[in-house]
Each structure stands twice: as structure tokens, then as C-alpha cells.
Design brief:
Blueprint: E1 22-32, E2 38-49, E3 59-60, E4 68-73, E5 79-85, E6 90-96, E7 102-108, E8 111-120, E9 126-132, E10 139-146
């Protein structure tokens, strides 16, 4: 029996949890105006003790145009952790069609609530939310929220 091992060290890009891990809950409203530009308004934040258990289906590992990039930044604005969020203005619903079978329909909304639950990196001072604007994952900053 033979096995192979990589000599390349593995780097875990996940957040290194401190002895007292914290969760960050953020609430925003996202709107799209007639020109297609998106705006985000910050509503509230809550920091609580705890560890993030399971990933939510609103997050994605392979972002596409229109999705959001949420980045935790240090006080020097260096990237600490990043997640990608499926476009909250696009909803997929199942409806019953004339043939009495279910079909999925995509609905584009002009306004939606955005609630995020993140594992808080101990050095995070800012949360930046940007929109992915092209297939090269170029981003346009929508909002930067300072944590105090």
C-alpha cells in the first residue's frame, strides 16, 4: 500500500479562533435604483460570544457578477477574512405552473434586507461590503462599517 503526501505546507485561510470567539451580526438594507446602482444602508450590529457552526446557503465560494464580497479589515485596512454573498436582490421561488408541477422562477427585487452572521476575527476594525461588477471579480465598494 502506497500513499502520497504533499511537501507544500497547508495554510488554513479560516479565522483563527481566540480563546473567547465572537460572532458578529450585521443588518443592512440594500436597494437598487433605476440606473442599476446598488446602495446599502447600515441598521445595526451585535457582537456576541460564540462560534459559527454551519455555513448559510446565502454564501457562495464561486461568486458571479452582482454578488457581494464581505471583507473583515484591520485598522490598517488589510484583509483578514472574506466571504461572498449571493446577490440578495435576486430571489428564486418555486411556483405551481398550469401543468400542476413545480417550477423555479427568478425574481429581481429593488429592495431587500441583508442580515449577516460572521465569525469575528479578533483584529477586525472594519467591515467592507463590495459588489462584484465583472467576471474578473473586480469590485465596487458599497459601504464600509466601522466596529467600535
Amino acid at each position: 500500500m502506497a500513499s502520497c503526501a504533499s511537501k507544500k505546507p497547508t495554510v488554513n485561510k479560516d479565522i483563527i479562533l481566540s480563546e473567547n470567539p465572537k460572532l458578529l451580526f450585521l443588518n443592512y438594507t440594500i436597494t437598487k435604483i433605476a440606473s442599476g446602482t446598488k446602495n446599502i444602508n447600515f441598521h445595526s450590529k451585535t457582537i456576541a460570544e460564540g462560534k459559527l457552526k454551519n455555513s448559510n446557503n446565502k454564501y457562495t465560494k464561486t461568486p458571479s457578477v452582482g454578488d457581494l464580497k464581505c471583507t473583515q479589515l484591520s485598522n490598517r485596512l488589510s484583509e483578514l477574512s472574506t466571504i461572498y454573498i449571493k446577490n440578495p436582490l435576486n430571489k428564486v421561488i418555486e411556483i405551481l405552473n398550469d401543468s400542476l408541477s413545480f417550477e423555479k422562477r427568478k425574481i429581481e427585487q429593488n429592495r431587500a434586507n441583508l442580515s449577516l452572521k460572521l465569525q469575528l476575527h479578533p483584529d477586525t476594525k472594519f467591515i467592507e461590503i463590495s459588489e462584484i461588477v465583472d467576471s474578473l471579480n473586480t469590485v465596487k465598494q458599497l459601504i464600509k462599517t466601522k466596529l467600535e
